[in-house]
Amino acid sequence: MEIKGTERVLVCPLGWGLGHASRMVPVVTFLLRKGCTVIIAGDASTNEFVKKRFPSVECIHFPSFSVRLSSSRFQILYLALVAIKVFLRTASEKREFRQILEKHSINLTISDNRYGLFSNQIPCVLVTHQLSPIFPKPFGFLKRVGERFVRRHAEQFTECWIPDNPEGFSFSGKLSQPQRLPKNSIRIGLLSRFSELKNVEADKRWELVAMVSGPEPHRTILEQQVVKLSVREKVKTLIIAGQPLNNSTFQLNEYVTIEPNLDDESIAKVLRGAKFVICRAGYSTIMDLLALNRSALLVPTPGQTEQEYLAKRMKSSTIFQIINQKNVSNLSLVQFEGSDFSPGTTNRFFPKTNY
Fold first, then answer.
1. Any idea what DSSP says for residue 294?
2. Phi, psi for residue 126 in degrees, rounded to 5
């Protein structure tokens, strides 16, 4: 797809966590450099995240759907409700989408995992690596149904961009390898907000940096687990809470400082400088870590089958190590010293990356 630089581009990230918004940062950067007018359409957290990085970009309120999981054994029911929400919201947001296109004179859209945002009147792009959703075991029989749903919607877009390597090792693995790929799919390489910050100076004030994010209550549960770990291990810890609507830094105790959110350069500096990094196993997070040549301990969100799959895939590739959320507070950090769980390990495994 040729982008001339005169387009008015609507960028619409999914609102489930900040990962979908964060991987749009290099896309928005590219569009602005080309001379395009960019408008972001998302929920409050997404818009606040983007506004801090691109103050001149207009943001409009266009939420996808809110998600809250459960910490109980009934979480699978909550995940089923999420799937229903995706289906219902995909159908309902089409009308609002048409109104936005007309009001803002949009002539190109880029949608991250929002399957209903296409139009026959203008070029529309879908960004997704989830072409073959992984369902929980009781619902595994729905795999083909999920693939057909995604493919049917993806092929209504002008192009379907897959953020993964065009050749060689596939970071998304079977997630982007359905039985039938959409006819309009293109692998565009990895997307990371840190792609231009690889050589930033390391901030070594913190022994441990933890990025906790995603839907509640698991975001808070992981944060509490890291606090217990930091106090028990007596390590100076920075927790980045993934809450862009909160602006208050909080000194919890002599070991732990909690930052609701930081700018990209500050995050890159502390990640590069930390002795240990703990974070979720979301695909955008993994791409960010790779961009910084930074290994980490991945904690998949319980019940999120995609994160559980990605964590195991990364561990089998010897890039990252993984741990269950419930075991974080009892972790012994000493065992990771001098192992793959240290800075500067990813280059040896992927000497050539596509940033």
1. B
2. -110, 130
Other C-beta atoms within 10 Å of 336: how many?
16
Range of the domain at 310: 208-339
Identify whether residues 111 and 168 lie together within a single domain. yes
C-alpha to C-alpha distance for 355 and 352, rounded to whole angstroms? 9
φ, ψ at 225 (rounded to 5°):
-65, -40
Per residue in 77-109, pLDDT (tens digit) is: 555 566 666 666 666 788 889 999 999 999 999
List the structure tokens of 251: 């000194």
Q: What is the pTM of this model?
A: 0.89
Taking the CA of residue 106 as centre, how many other CA atoms within 13 Å lie in the half-sphere pointing to its CB? 28
Strand order in the sheet with 58-61: 58-61, 37-42, 8-13, 108-112, 124-127, 159-162, 185-187
Residue 303, domain member (yes or no): yes
Residues 138 and 227 occupy one common structural domain: no
Residues 238 and 181 in one domain: no
Shared domain for 332 and 258, answered yes or no, is: yes
Helices and strands (DSSP H and E) totals, the chain: 10, 14
